[in-house]
User: Fold these one by one.
Assistant:
Number 1:
Amino acid sequence: MKQPKNQNEKYSVLFTDIDKGRIKIPQFQRDFVWTKAQTAALIDSILKGFPIGTFILWKTNDRLRHMRNIGNIELKEPRSGDPVQYVLDGQQRITSLYAVRKGIRITRDGKKIDYKDIAIDLTIDPGDEDEVVFEQAPNGHEYISVFRLLNATLKELFDDHGAQYLDRISEYKTSLEGYAFSTVVIDEYPIDVACEVFTRINTGGKELTLFEIMVAKTFDQERDFDLAKYYDELISTDGDDKDLESAGYDGLPAETILQCVAANASGSINRRDVLKIDRNLFIDSWEPTIKGLFAAIDYLRTHLRISVSRILPYNALLIPFSWFFVQKDGHDISTDQHALLRQYFYWASLNYRFQSAVATKVADDLRKMKKILKGRQPRYDTQELKTEVDDLEWQPFSVGDAFCKAIICLLAEKGPQRLNTNGDVILGNDWLRISTSKNYHHFFPRSFLEKQGYKREDSNSLMNIVLVDDYLNKRIIRARAPSEYVAEFKKNRNLRKALATHYIESPKEMGIWDDNYKTFVRRRAEIIAGALTDALNPELG
């Protein structure tokens, strides 16, 4: 990499480059937030000859997503093939100076701000320590707006103010137009290094996300591709296109979507490899990846009945699944492929697969998916899985734990029914946020168990959790003994069928009629352990 270049630029040169589109503010910069008072103070410092800091610019032939206008001023696009200098440090200062020069008007928090109003009090001696620049023209004083000072000729200014203040005005005009702005240009740095520079000097060590960098890198005006815009539309769209919100998967973060595209484009989600993906390859990979992503979501919803993203053990699971369905390209899966996908899902979820080293494990899992595409059994290490009865029996329930979510997915896959009518239990992302949410119910209510002398952690066993609707949970079951509220459902002729959809067998054998919590937990652990064994050991045709 070349060493940074230190150079000075005059006001006119610096802002001519902005006018011509040769200097741009990348979109990962924060919005223009400086007040007029701060801008006035900056101009005052320049008039007094004070240093105002260095502008750091990144010169590159890459085209990044950038700000297209400032207030009422539309910024020009650079000529094709010309290098662009992106502002990495000094955005607020350079935007303030540009706003004053162009007399920009912006609206912030519902208030209109006009930078033509910033004015110099001509009655104050320039040699005094007092400020001479104000955000509004001082009442009863002779003044000149900074906008007028920079854009009018001396003759025009003489016509405005006469000879009395002409020398002072001339001095101010020379000071502003002749001020040597310190700039450092880093030339031809890779985008990840340039973003590292930005991170270190702007955000106090808070690293730019990979998604923010790729938004900048993959922006292509000619192909009308804007990753940030596409992601927003993917989450929710007012049109007829599919979106994640209507699919119940609007909780997916931008990083996961990016990783799905990267896996399809390069086979790797490693940060360094993602940054190396060619812009056109990334754009070409977007549409088939999104098609594959929705196919994967449709599979999870219809085959595994994971109807909402809230219970998905790991968002990263969608990376190998979407990759698989990109390869399928709209073709239906076979019975064996379904069995193998289901096996992979529960294996990866139950062993905390993506708790660490996600990139490495995804790369390995894509190889597993290649075998599943051929209907072949991948190799799995199942020694670490804790799916025996003793493992499950007193496993604490936590909505954020991947193992617990895997069991919740198993419960959802069973198609839980309402105990009174056998209607389907509808799951909602908003009803699954915390352990006390509407869809989660402790079959033996915790308040009831505490009265029986059980500790709170024992009553919160994962084996005590069932998925129900809000009405049954909060209005009928409440804190009553199971023997009491289940008895009310006896009038439902299909009660046993409804209970079976919750992995609950005969109420008598499960200890329900005599409110035997330990019997219930033990027996349900045995049933669920058996279901997990079946999922992890599929029979192939």
Note: The mean pLDDT is 88.
Number 2:
Amino acid sequence: MDKILILDFGSQTTQLIGRRVREIGVYAEIVPGDSRLTAVALEGARGIILSGSPSSVYDEGAPAPDPAVYSAGLPILGICYGLQRMTADHGGRVEPLSEREYGGVRVKLDVPELPASAGGGKAAAFLTGFGADGKGPGGEFTVWMSHGDSLSALAPGFVQVGTSAHGFPAVVVHEKERWFGLQFHPEVTHCERGTDILSAFALGVCGAKREWSMEKYVQEVRDTLRSRVGNRPVLLLISGGVDSTVAGALLLKTLDSDQVHLMYMDTGLMRKDETIVVKANLERLGAKHLHIIHCERDFLGALAGLEEPEAKRKAIGDLFITIQEREVSRLGLGEDYYLAQGTLYTDLIESGKGVGKKAHVIKSHHNVRSPLVEAKRNAGRIIEPLDRLYKDEVRALGRLLGIDEDVVRRHPFPGPGLAVRILGEVTREKCDVLRDADAIYISELKKRGLYDQIWQAFAVLLPIRSVGVAGDVRKYGWVLALRAIVSEDGMTADVYPFPMKDLIEISTLITNTVKDIGRVTYDISSKPPATIEWE
């Protein structure tokens, strides 16, 4: 199968590049940026993309590709750091900006007279993605930038064909080689023409065939699971959310159902009536071995006195595995079982577990960075069949597997549960308050026909009390923040523009119904700079 090879230098959006290429229908494979480009690694490759990076090319130890990348004879697209890397590697100059270019920036395309050999004769094909034909101006459009360095001198052979509103190089092409560079991120949904640009590269320049599909992904994963697991038992820690439910369905439809064990932990940190809903959904999947563990006291005890978000996440992650191991011993699965998880791409990326070696940690996910999970991972006993998918792709997979639509379209819910939606120390009292408020919020969204317009909505209990009046009595109630965002993949997100009437009515209903809530606010932060969850 034709593929585009993506070299990951640690960018938080590297996986988005792969996803966008897959959307085009071309298989994308992501490897560490410093991988040796052997014949095996290049098999089927029709082009190479160099990703962004949190590093600067002039930093000591800055990530660099195998020099063979430039002699492989394949088209190359450098994105942000990838362009800077190509520039530095070929005699150009990269320097820091006095003020970084970030967010939406206008870019003007102005194509000079290029030789017919430009980009191996492929420059025109690439520039069609910008709405240009390689013979003149291609207009202006808004791109998404995130960098603190710029090209102060192009490398010999490169020609500037696009300029940012601040006067810096934004698009370059090579006069002879099929090498192209962008000082912005076409993979981010906020970037106009982003998919067109990547499509022009993958299809027009590289000539890759559209051979990738979810059906092929499923077949590949199933073959890998059967080969790796054999007849050994597999235990899936299942939350009942979309990710773990889809992972469970994939396991049940791939392996013998007798070897698949689903363990659900009622941690006391779940949504209202969650255990009842989860049990019903899993039984509909045909699970033979469903183990429901009631462990609220354990988790609330482990969280007592903890206020720092990372400390709470790590405590939850460790306890998840500790209880799992305790319960597994009771199940009699022995030592030879596999632990399965519904880990997604975004979990790995934000936890600094991207494919590259330079990924930064945004927040720890309990199913990724917990020391005990790491031990299982290092022992080769972790199965993560969704770890190359984004949330929308998981939903598509769920539909392909025949999971009920009500389950597939559920909003994401964090592994640590309400613990990361209760800022500060977590108590049973706070969990109950938040559960009730959140249930009203979500119920109202569904009644008002808003739920499916929103990627994720939830309530957050803040660690402060605000003065208020109940009847004629002065009281102090908790402050609740409502969050609702729209997104395509969870890597970037915009605030959902609530009709004010709905927001006011929902707020009033919450404060009138949940006596401990005295004030409601609405979070209007986008991602970036904020994350979707508060902790």
Note: Residues 377 and 383 are 9 Å apart (CA to CA).
Number 3:
Amino acid sequence: MRRAPIPSLAACLCALALLATACGGADRSAGPPVDGATFTYVISADPGNLDPHQTVLSVTNDFNTLTYDTLVAYDADNEMVSGIAGSWEADATSATFTLRPDVVCDDGTPMTASVVQANFDYLKDPANASPLIGTTLPHRDFTTTADDAAGTVTVTMARPYGFLLEAVATLPIVCPAGLADRELLARGSAGTGPFTLTEAVAGDHYTLVRREGYTWGPGGASTDAAGFPDRVVVRIVDNEATAANLLLAGDVNAAAITGVDQERLRVRGMFESSTDRITGQLWFNHKQGHPGSDPAVRRALTLALDLHELRMVMTSGLGSAPTAMAVLEPRGCTGDTVAGTLPAQDVEAARRALDEAGWTVGADGTRSRDGTPLTLRLLYKSGFDDLSAGMELLARRWQENLAVVVESQAMTDTGIIEATFGGDAWDVANLPLNAYLPVTISPFATGALPPEGSNYTAIDNPLYTDLSAQAQVTAGEAGCELWNRAEAALFSAFDVVPIAQAPRPVFGSGARFGSRGGAVIPTSITMPAG
């Protein structure tokens, strides 16, 4: 087990990644670089509110790497490299960063230590209710000081935090215009990143233009590099088959394709860059009145499934068993927290568990208790044929093996978030959380329900709560040991059921790039002559 320097969920795509190229055909992404081109990039859902301090959605955080920088970044070897800051030093209680003197906002305003401090002051203010408190930073009990003359900013925690450097270093930094007008950030940008947002058409496309004179990217990456695009157009396409067709036609330059359409792209010899992500992860609604509030029901539902069978279907045979909650590479903690925590399929034991819990099969062939049918409302992401097949299999196994009623609904990312965080008309959701740090998972499994907190499933696992609280203030190997035990406690209680992780390749047509977590790294884009 090791612990490596890792970015937070909110800014995890700033590092350069190794490129993986498919073989077997002509590669439109090969050739000498060409300047002045447009890079067209497909994402599967609208990013919504673009304020980087008011979101934990992966699709939004990925988009914001185009327009915002962080204090430090990561290279292909997962080593920290310069970003807005040229140097830094940190321990578990304090982190100090010395800013580069040449960093400029997209409106020409210089980036100063006081501006960075104002970003952390915004997070600290409870009136702003930033979801980054509890996911990136563990709490608001910290102080920030700035010295503009020296160009230094220091964040000091009231008590130790094992991932302080990673959390503070990778917060997206908003410029003064955005700090003064948060409404500007909702559909615009105010950052120091390599691009500036010029057009936002919700649900359709976003247009961004290259920053002139940008030289402070990860490790000194520059927009003056040969082949760097003048424009980026981000298109919203929620169906993978459609996205693959656009790639094959040469109408777009990049799209993440996770399902069966991967093979027809590889047959054409298309460029790809790939990293692993969680694709299958069941969360139960633990609120009173829902079947998932009973541990016996959660156990029975899990026992009724052949997780390997389900994994193979929902990933087109490309997936593997997850080893942890936070699996994005490079991981903050290694080790297998899943092995040995979930039982093998045992349909008879599942049926007995439901019988003992009072859910019995009636004359109509379905289970009920006190006249109430055992009905499960299942939510999952739309637009992915293999995932849909997997969720249909899941529903069928529960119906056939346990005689329960399953009502399935495919929804967009935004729709699932609204349904689970803002409503109660659901019982089970395949809503994978992808993170580098185990601490990122904690607020989704502890604490208050939305809107005060992020524990949308109402999980109450005292062992996880205790171990994760200890882990937050413990650095190094000892901290990872605690995090691993905490995650295992979630699985043993059937609070969360990990099903699958799989490579998330981003395919390229007429472009080359690196990827991290299934998204393009902006400063890695190169447009070759076609």
Note: The CA atoms of residues 109 and 176 lie 8 Å apart.
